[in-house]
Amino acid sequence: MAKLIYSMITSLDGYAEAAEGGLGTGAEDPEVHTFINDLYRPVGTYLYGRRMYETMVYWETAHSQPDLPPHIVQYARDWQAAEKVVYSTTLQSVSSARTRIERSFDPDAVRALKAESDRDLTVDGPNLAAQAIAAGLVDEYHLFVTTSVVGGGKRFFPDGVRLDLELVEERTFDSGMIHARYRTR
Questions:
Q1: Residues 147, 12 contacting (CB under 8 angstroms)
Q2: pLDDT tens digits, residue range 32-44?
Q3: To 10 degrees, the CA torsion angle through 17, 94, 112, 89?
Q4: Where is the Bacterial bifunctional deaminase-reductase C-terminal domain positioned along the sequence (predicted)?
Q5: CB within 8 A of 123, min separation 6: which ones?
C-alpha cells in the first residue's frame, strides 16, 4: 500500500501560502532543490487542486528551456513521469500528459488509489491537503520551513484538526531552511 504525503514549503510561523505572496528564500537553493528531487522521485501520483496544478504545469515543458541546471531538468523529467490528478470544478482541460481531472475530492477513491498503488502519492496545496487531512488519509508530512515569518495567509495545517505526529527525519540546509518529516502515529 502506498503512502499519501503532504509536503510544502512553509514559513516559520506555519503558512504554506503568504497573504501577499512569497514565503522567503530557500526553495531556489540547488541543495534544497536536489534534496526535493530525491524526495519526490519515487512518487507515482500527484494530487493537485486547480491553482497548484496551474503552478506546477510549468514542469511539463521546463526541460526544453536552454541553460537550465541539471537539478532543474531532472525535476522536470521526474514530474513528467508521474501521474497527476487535478481536483477542479472549473478547469476544462489539462495541458500535461498523464493528467486527469476529477470534479470533486472523494476520500474513498483516494483510499482505493493508495491501496492499489505501488508508488507513493502526494497531496499538494493547503486547500486540498486540508480535505485529505480531515479524512485521515495523510500518512506523512514533509515541512520545508523557511527563515521567514509572514504573519498571515493559508496555514500549512488546517484549523480544527488534531494530529499526533512522530518526527522521523530532520535536516538543516546551508540556506537556513529546515526539512522536518513527520509520520502519523
A1: yes
A2: 999 999 999 999 9
A3: 70
A4: 3-178
A5: 4, 5, 6, 47, 129, 132, 137, 138
Cell of 170: 530532520
Q: If residue 102 lies in a helix (H) or strand (E), which one and from where to where?
A: strand 99-102
Single-letter code of the amino acid located at 51: R
CATH code for position 145: 3.40.430.10
Enter the pTM of the model.
0.94
Q: What is the DSSP letter of 26?
A: S
Helices (H), the chain: 30-40, 50-56, 70-81, 107-116, 126-134
Confidence band, pLDDT 50/70/90 cuts, at residue 23: confident
Question: 16: part of which helix (H) or strand (E)?
Answer: strand 15-18
Instruction: Give residue 26's region: left, alpha or beta (phi > 0; psi -120 to 50).
Output: left
Beta carbons of 15 and 154 less than 8 angstroms apart: yes
Report the number of distinct structural domains present in the chain.
1
Q: Which of 125, 135, 141 is nearest to 184 (CA)?
A: 141
Parent domain of 107? 4-184
Grid cell for residue 12: 516559520
